[in-house]
Fold this protein.
Amino acid sequence: MAKHTHTLPVNFTGGIISPGYLLELLETAAAAQATHVRFGLRQQLLVDIPDKNLAAFKKNCADKQLPIADQPNIMSSYPAAGIFIHDSWLSEGIYKDVFNGFDYTPTLKINICDSQQTFVPLFTGHINWISSGSLHYWYLYIRMPGSQQLYAWPELIYTNNIAAMSKQLEQSINEGDTPEEVYQQVKQVASYIGRPKEKEPDLPAFHLPYYEGFNKFENSYWLGIYRRDEDFPIAFLKEVCTICLETRIGQLYATPWKSLIIKNIEPAHRKLWDYVLGKYGINVRHAANELNWQVEDNCEDGLVLKRHIIRYFDTADVRTYGLCFSVRINRPASLFGTVVIRKQENKHGSKLKYMQRYDILYTAGYNANSAQLLLYREGVSKEHLGPYIVALCRTFYERESEADVLQHYVTEQQSLAPVAAVERVVHQCQVCLTVYDDAAGDPEQQIPEGTAFSELPEDYCCSVCSSPLDEFKAINETDLHPATLSTHTV
């Protein structure tokens, strides 16, 4: 954020942005001499307005009914629907039904997420709704303000009750209360449809899908746009909105990674997007190890630290798949990341940058959704962060390899391989090629099924040509000619 500017958040429920609404907001911001906007961690828009134009901007927004929000945005996995999430009962229509049920402006952080995805953090809210395997039923997890502890609601809750339950929870959560006390209070006053929980959700292992650039999906494209400095030029976004309106794209999507996604781009319209990206010099192919970071909103120091570490990643050619990183300068309670770089408090009051020290932490079990942080290194200088974090990444992969996934795969494939059939031996008459099969016996000569050839009486003879036993020869069933089986088998 530049000096002498004021940052105003604009909430887009669930990350859904109307191009027409955004265009009007951008034009109002441009009239107030704003040149760039940014997206926040909770899928909202952040607008930097010069202080001298702040009052006029707020008045214009009020006149045009463009609400400027001080409350946290409702966060959701809606942007991932259809491109990163498949075969889920949680459709885009159900998301919208849930959002439309909110008749109040939440003051607590609310997350509404599909349990099958790893694109959007599940538990960074105070009220966290996670879809279950049962149609229209949800897990609920509460994180009391100022706490890192999650409380699992004892029941699953029906879709239509999410908004009312969230409202009741906000009214019942008071400072000093325990989650159990909140549960008892809500149970006394709230009416909702619930069902018993059989188990906690089986969450997938974290991996961040590559969310940038043009990507083919079925008969259309989707486009992800990430900005290294987090700044999106207003002039560029205005043209994005215009293209959407001209090509009947009704929604844009803000992500928790401070990026923008446009879905349902028709192949015939791709040239329009190539044009506007080229016109503004927008790069849409960054390295994956730069995309899996969360940095606090309005934190230039955090961005500087991120860039410093990524440069070391590039030099070391390090793999970071399955990990995500967060930089905590001001220590927000709900930032998402398996590896955390946390600025230490300045105990000596020094303003010298080189005196600053950082702690490196990681989540228990390298679980990105865990709030339990374990210390890896303490009091690390900026120059040594890169080597230590690379070492921690390697520790993660060493831990993964302990399971010997390759050997497990080989064993699993071997167990799935068809077992070779045991070759059966039958006896064939060498004169007429009649076959005696132990399993079938010879009913015409009163030899019951299951009688072994060795158990036949000495006077047994071929039922076709009357040849004696010594004219029969043992032979594998697979070596018999098909015609033999069909015409001469006893």
